[in-house]
Design brief:
The protein is α+β, with helices and mostly antiparallel strands. The chain is built from two helices and eight strands, in the order H-E-E-E-E-E-H-E-E-E. Keywords: Signal.
């Protein structure tokens, strides 16, 4: 999930890029807040080490107390606001049943990069069993290849587990991308 979030943020920044000159940017993670009731469906903890403006190392655990099947869905929304503005504009919105999400988004953007450093489920594994703990160790996100396409702003990443149209678990992450001061 973390690589997907970072990849989508970087790709969204690419879409928003308008400047021709190459500027170095700093990615600043401000907070990650879970929604009330999330612990009924998933619990997690993680550590993140910032290695440089664009590179991060992540380790953590994710526990599913209950089976998660295709009665659940995944909703992912990425929004951006200009520096100094509180008005976010939606840049990307994904909503899929859990098993379809596993076979498409998770498979394309996440699975290959974590299969050797985690026990995260295979993209064909759905439903996800209850009482299962997943882990990831020292996942390295290298974003330096995106430097030429980066643009500053405030980003909001919303990732929810849904059931019957309601958000039952999830988190909202906010971050700021700004030019590195020389």
């Amino acid at each position: 999930m973390f690589k997907l979030i970072l990849s989508v943020v970087v790709l969204a920044v690419v879409v928003a890029a308008q400047e021709e000159e190459e500027i170095n940017y700093d990615f600043i993670f401000e907070k990650m807040e879970t929604i009330e009731g999330s612990e009924q469906y998933c619990e997690y903890n993680y550590t993140m080490e910032k290695l440089s403006e664009y590179n991060f190392k992540l380790s953590g655990n994710f526990f599913t107390p209950k089976e998660l099947n295709n009665d659940f869905g995944i909703v992912f929304t990425l929004s951006r606001a200009e520096v100094g503005s509180e008005e976010f504009e939606e840049m990307m919105h994904i909503s899929k049943p859990l098993c379809e999400y596993m076979k498409t988004i998770y498979r394309m953007y996440f699975y290959e990069s974590v299969k050797d450093i985690s026990n995260f489920p295979h993209f064909d594994e759905c439903p996800l069993p209850g009482q299962k703990e997943y882990w990831i160790k020292e996942y390295l996100f290298e974003g330096e290849g995106y430097k030429a396409f980066t643009r500053d702003g405030h980003f909001k990443i919303e990732f929810y587990l849904t059931k019957d149209g309601a958000n039952v678990a999830g988190a909202v992450t906010t971050m700021t991308v700004k030019p590195v001061e020389k």
